[in-house]
Amino acid sequence: EDFMKSEKYKDEEITESARFCLGGFIRLIEGYTWGFVITPKENGNSDISLRSLPASVNVREMMERMGIGGGHNRAAGGTFTKYDGISVLKCIKQTLEWMSKNKPVID
Q1: How is domain 2-100 classified at the architecture level of CATH?
Q2: Are 38 and 48 in contact (CB under 8 A)?
Q3: What is the pTM of this model?
Q4: Could you write out the DSSP letters of every residue in 43-103?
Q5: How do residues 47-69 score in pLDDT, each as one tens digit?
């Protein structure tokens, strides 16, 4: 929250950095076949972007089942809409809670 209030970076710059991180980094972390990045936006929403490797989590299916987005099987995303001042930490907790209650689709 303090990061967004500092207004050092525009949404477009943060989004571009998140895409770079996902596309060039998350898929290369040894021992992990998928990952996600949550990016806060100036309007109070938070975007989530996910990437996965073949024979791993179908991230499109995950976003659709969570009801917040969609995309492709290996690259998907969604939006946590602003409510009750949702923070990035709450978005992460919500994602992890959903994952603990729902078996991922592997393909």
Answers
A1: Roll (3.10)
A2: yes
A3: 0.74
A4: TS-EEEEEEE-TTSB-HHHHHHHHTSEEE-SSEEEEEE---TT--HHHHHHHHHHHHHHSP
A5: 888 989 889 999 999 999 999 99
